[in-house]
Amino acid sequence: MGLASELARFALVGGAGVLVNLLVFNLLRHSTHLPVVRASVVATVVSIGFNYLGFRHFAYRECDKSGRARELTLFLLFSAAGLVIENGTLYTATYGFGRHSPLQSNVFKFLGIGLATLFRFWSYRSWVFRALPGVVRRGEGERECVSLAKARARGGGAGGAGPD
What we know:
Layout: H1 3-31, H2 36-59, H3 68-96, H4 102-128, E1 137-139, E2 142-143, H5 148-154
Antiparallel strand pairs: 1-2
Helix pairs in contact: 1-2, 1-4, 2-3, 3-4
């Protein structure tokens, strides 16, 4: 899968995840008495679950599937770091700079999502949804994710898919 295709799929799943995140955040914000950052953390956790399903079954469906436990562990680890980036931005704006209005909360939530997305794209593509060894590079910045069966048919993945 080329970088442009990978970015497009990541953006499609991620964009839907942003909508889920903001929808849950605003729903919680306006229908419960949760503090703003706590509502944001809950919304982020919901969108992390949504995004994992989208990335695994759409954006990176052709990538190595042999190490699901490792993949999920790394996904959750990097997603938790993204959660801290995203909600740390909102926390700083809310409690550090006194930005409390619903509009300001949404602006800083969106900014935090953007910063966390840069980190998540790098970490997911580098560590979580990896291409199989020996079939990784086609050109500068491009990679091809293939299933183990396709790698075996090409003569490149006889035993396993690399370290787990």
